[in-house]
Design goal:
This protein is of the alpha+beta class and about 260 residues long. It has helices at about 25-30, 70-80, 90-100, 135-145, 150-160, 205-220, 235-240; strands spanning about 5-10, 35-40, 45-50, 55-60, 85, 105, 105-115, 125-130, 165-170, 175-180, 190-195, 225-230, 245. The structure holds coenzyme A (COA).
Length: about 260
């Protein structure tokens, strides 16, 4: 087999690579996603997508699992550029492990209808923007165990027009934050939700989501989407608790 990856534009027919995205090109541009076809002797057998240093999907055509050696070839091709791979497909996960990519697992796409009555906005959250990167950056780093949170926060709000963020203060200190943006199809994309480790399970996460989605519902948005990695039990349970449900089928993975 002589697989190779050919970078290109995403196709117009989203079903051809097995994903349900209504405005496929806009979704890519908005998310900073890159796209490449996996070809076998000139014939397309699948596609790979990545953003920054993470592979987000390796897809077979017509919603099929890509041949495992095609996944492996695609990940080998991209490996100099990426550190991590996420996928719904066991074969891709197995290939990722063989490639020693840092984090490989399922990512669930979740969706929620925004009923203004059900998402009554809470007024207790403080709106934040790029100007608050100094405050939010250190919080971001503590929650996501990163460095450089200030820059990440500043860039997010600066680059995504119409993004919104909220900070939750408790006894005078910022303990949790939330950010979302609006996708081109008007879906609200929840991008971050973080609560300081010692402040969890006190309802701050839930209240911040209510603040964010409540504000969006009040301005006429009717759907929200988000992504949560399979191992993130707290993130998944919270998403379910505030009304998100699975958009894509879960796959049980046997990593190895
Ligand atoms: C996910 C996270 C934001 C939850 O925040 P939180 O303030 O602890 O959540 P809440 O107290 O509002 O919990 C609301 C509901 O979510 C569910 N939940 C939250 N954490 C949970 C956990 N560790 N285990 C099981 N269920 C959990 C529960 O149903 C909970 O309701 P209950 O306490 O009445 O049972 C927090 O754990 C966090 O910051 N994690 C790291 C960052 C992250 O993964 N963010 C999400 C993806 S971007």
């Amino acid at each position: 087999m002589a697989y190779k990856v050919v970078p290109g534009r995403p196709p117009h027919d989203p079903w051809s690579v097995g994903l349900r995205v209504r405005d496929w090109e806009a979704w890519y541009d908005d998310a900073g996603l890159r796209f490449g076809w996996i070809e076998d002797g000139g014939e397309r057998v699948g596609a790979i997508t990545w953003v920054g240093d993470e592979v987000t999907q390796v897809l077979g055509l017509n919603a099929n699992e890509p041949p495992e050696d095609a996944s492996e070839a695609a990940l080998m091709w991209i490996k100099p550029r990426v550190l991590a791979a996420y996928s719904f497909q066991p074969g891709v996960v197995a290939a990722g492990h063989r490639q020693a990519l840092e984090a490989v697992g399922e990512v669930f796409q979740l969706r929620s209808a925004l009923d203004p009555a059900a998402h009554a906005a809470t007024r207790d959250a403080t709106p934040v923007s790029a100007a608050d990167a100094e405050t939010l950056g250190p919080l971001y780093d503590q929650v996501f165990k990163t460095k450089g949170g200030r820059r990440v926060v500043w860039q997010f709000f600066d680059r995504h027009e119409g993004s919104q963020g909220f900070l939750w203060r408790h006894q005078g200190r910022g303990v949790a934050f939330y950010a979302d943006r609006v996708n081109p199809n008007r879906d609200v994309q929840v991008v971050w939700l973080g609560v300081l480790p010692d402040m969890r399970r006190q309802g701050f996460g839930r209240r911040l989501v209510a603040a964010g989605l409540g504000a969006r519902a009040e301005t006429g948005h009717r759907q929200a989407v988000t992504q949560v990695a399979a191992g993130n039990t707290a993130g998944l349970r919270l998403a379910e608790a505030v009304g998100f449900s699975w958009e894509w089928t879960k796959t049980r993975l046997e990593a190895g």
